[in-house]
Design goal:
Number of helices of chain B: 9
Helix content of chain A: 55-70%
Order of helices and strands of chain A: HHEHE
Number of domains of chain A: 1
CATH topology of the largest domain in chain B: Peroxisomal Thiolase, Chain A, domain 1
Largest sheet of chain A: 2 strands, antiparallel
CATH topology of chain A: Non-ribosomal Peptide Synthetase Peptidyl Carrier Protein, Chain A
Radius of gyration of chain B: 18 Å
Strand order of the largest sheet of chain A: 1-2
Number of helices of chain A: 3
CATH architecture of chain A: Orthogonal Bundle
CATH superfamily of the largest domain in chain B: Thiolase/Chalcone synthase
Strand content of chain B: 15-25%
Oligomer: heterodimer
Chain lengths: 97, 310
């Protein structure tokens, strides 16, 4: 198997973990129950996240997944939907230690 | 053409970490982490025993260019974020004028551009002096505020205010730091206490980057320049991440946005512009002929930018 294929598979696994973790962490970050999410769920207009709660969610994801997320490159486009955020985190996460 | 002749700054000695502020501000551990990790804030300066007058006097104390020229000062402008800072009829500005021997100056406060008011004050000072037509006349712009309430200490999830002061001597014309342009936009639709108005806060967050980018680019264009000709941006010290995003948005290298004071001072209201100017000057980051941007945004909301030539 080529190296690129392995990386792509690992990213897919990590992305699914990120997606699942977002679903678990959203009620904690927003301090209320949240509806079931899909890739297309809008983080701001549907769930009511704001810039600060978005960053809190990233911190919670780091802790939950035991990764570090490089946020220097994050842009508005990475925070539109749950799918956008999961893509960004999976692409910018490095394992602790 | 309006010019800055001299700038003096002051930061109180007491350094307070955001962990030590957490109890007073009601910050949860994850919010402290957010401030440190993403927003780039770690401490502020405070002088809990000092009055507003103490703070402003300390800001002016280092202004050597004022000594012996007090009689040339026609205007004293106190630029501040908060509309009310002392109970009536106290007026520390007039006390300060007496203490500095500036009794003959017309002294008044400039506000309502919130944290962008220092730029407005420099512009007003320059225009008043130009209208008077006295070449040796000076104006003194003062900044510095006390963090006396929670709203004066914290913008939740965005910034923490600290105490600091600055005094800036302005002339109608000069060669030191010449004002090339001033762009400002006030968007009154964002007036309101954002903490109480989540929809307004969400809209403000959404429009903030475009609004600030517009005035930055407008100021550069008014100066007849391109962004490539700007050597440095002196920002307001609201936080690091918003400036990182804005830099990317306008295509300006973030390493030429002076963010070094954010972790040291927090957001010192209207003093940020001058604190950052002093840092750039003292570190030799500005060479003669360099064009630089001073930028600020104020809640309420006003977005402002000035281009200067050093």
């Amino acid at each position: 198997m080529e190296e690129g294929t392995v990386t792509a598979q690992l990213d897919t696994v990590l992305r699914q973990r990120v997606f699942d973790s977002i679903g678990v962490l959203l009620p904690k970050v927003l301090s209320r129950e949240t509806p079931a999410i899909s890739d297309s769920t809008q983080l701001m207009s549907e769930l009511g996240l704001r810039s600060a709660t978005m960053l809190e969610l990233l911190l919670e994801l780091e802790e939950d997944l035991e990764v570090q997320i490089d946020v220097e490159d994050i842009d508005q486009g990475d925070m539109n939907t749950v799918g956008d955020l999961a893509d960004f985190v999976a692409a910018h996460a490095t394992t602790d230690g | 053409m309006t010019a800055i002749e001299a700038v003096a700054t002051y930061l109180p000695d007491q350094r307070v970490s955001i962990e030590d502020l957490a109890g007073r501000l009601g910050l949860r551990p994850i919010q402290i982490k957010l401030f440190r990790r993403f927003l780039g804030l770690s401490q502020i300066r405070l002088d809990p025993a000092g009055t507003l007058l103490d703070l402003l006097l300390a800001g002016a104390a280092g202004l050597d260019a004022l000594r012996g020229r007090e009689h040339q000062v026609r205007y004293v402008l106190y630029a501040r974020t908060l509309p009310v800072v002392v109970p009536y009829p106290l007026n520390p500005l007039h006390e300060l004028c007496r203490a500095l021997g500036l009794d003959r100056a017309v002294a008044f406060t400039v506000t309502h551009h919130a944290c962008a008011t220092s730029l407005l004050a420099v512009d007003i000072a320059g225009r008043l002096l130009a209208a008077d037509g006295e070449p040796d006349a000076l104006a003194l712009v003062l900044t510095g505020e006390k963090t006396f309430t929670r709203d004066a200490q914290l913008v939740p999830g965005t910034s923490i205010f600290g105490e600091g002061a600055a005094a800036c001597l302005v002339r109608a014309d000069g060669h030191r730091d010449r004002l090339l342009s001033y762009a400002t936009a006030t968007k009154g639709e964002f007036d309101g206490r954002l903490e109480d108005l989540p929809e307004l806060a969400a809209r403000y967050e959404q429009e903030y980057p475009d609004s600030l980018a517009e005035v930055l680019l407008a100021a550069v264009a008014q100066a007849g320049l391109t962004l490539e000709e700007i050597s440095l941006i002196l920002p307001h010290n609201v936080n690091v991440v918003s400036w990182q995003r804005l830099s990317r948005k306008i295509g300006f290298p973030v390493d030429r946005v002076l963010l070094d004071n954010v972790p040291v001072t927090g957001h010192a209201f209207c003093a940020d512009s001058f604190l950052n100017y002093a840092t750039a000057r003292d570190r030799g980051l500005l060479r003669p002929g360099d064009r630089y941007l001073i930028a600020a945004a104020g809640l309420g909301a006003t977005f402002s930018a000035m281009v200067f030539e050093h």
